[in-house]
């Protein structure tokens, strides 16, 4: 590819939210070259429903776009697995033979499920793909016993979905209340209490192994107890899939190293999604593993591929669903400052993290989408807000956006 010219072709390796959003953003920005989207599963699909309505069977296929979108946007979807990339000549070697070539390669390889150091780790199920969800769903229902190791976002969502199908669920975590750094202790405690209300047993402890005896599974605990199970799910996070990047000689350090526009250490290769780690001000940021961050990193990489400025960084946002409750969090709920509560635990309940200067660092809530969108905007603008207004359910945060000047005014 001549220096300074637009690439004639792009191969995106990985068709999750990051890879798909990169392809969509290239077209939205007017790119006319060839785009190939490579993934072992073929047609791109969304990941969040895998622990929720896809797992319960309410959703037939978690598509990222209507099937006709790909033809209309001239995006070729290829079912295949990349086993090697050569940045110098832009080649992608496929499992079983075959090769793709492009002016630019975009790695959106995501991550793989973190494994536990158990002798019986091969007896554990994980949930990272549609096929994982299909297998897990087949093992849920009345008269089934599921033990979940890890009560974070995925573990808690699977517990909710499994319980709705009549499964007896035990949820284990080494901390008594998960998600405190993400949503604050008040909201985290409420969310965790929903398990018991729904009949899910929660245990604070550390599993040390899983064994099979007489056709049944047992989860062995550090305190000497054992939990019977038909199925054991490990929901203990992921590790970034940097295999292709490392073998190609790209910069890797607990993720593929990129700048704000998704550029790697090779000018022909970009990267996006859960597997990337951004460099900033001479240091390395922590990886972000949420859907919104993956989509935005794909969009940033698309801008970088075209030699354009990426969108400005957005205030972090994520959501989780369990037992009919939709929880969201924006910003940083672990920042220094004070906590302000609005309402009581249940729908409409919100918790704010307010900095000493009166501006918001973060906000979280239950079924409070409009207010959280306003809170996210307040964080972006750096607008100070009175604690009395934050705690008052009748104070519309959207009005506060218009009523108060930003701290930079």
Task: Describe the fold and architecture.
This protein is of the alpha/beta class and 409 residues long. The protein is 24% helix and 29% strand. It contains eleven helices and 25 strands. A five-stranded parallel sheet has the order 3-2-1-7-18. Strands 21-22-25-24-23 form a five-stranded antiparallel sheet, sandwiched between helices. A four-stranded parallel sheet has the order 11-10-9-15, with helices on one face. α1 crosses α8. It is globular, with a radius of gyration of 23 Å. The N and C termini lie far apart (46 Å). The model has no long low-confidence stretch (mean pLDDT 93).
Q: What proportion of the residues form beta strands (DSSP E)?
A: 25-35%
Kindly provide the radius of gyration, computed on alpha-carbon positions and rounded to a whole number of angstroms.
Answer: 23 Å
Mean pLDDT: 93
- Tally of contiguous helical segments: 11
The order of strands across the largest sheet is 3-2-1-7-18
Q: Indicate the structural class.
A: alpha/beta
Question: Total strand count, please?
Answer: 25
Summarize the biggest pleated sheet.
Answer: 5 strands, parallel
Overall 3D shape: globular
Distance between the termini: 46 Å
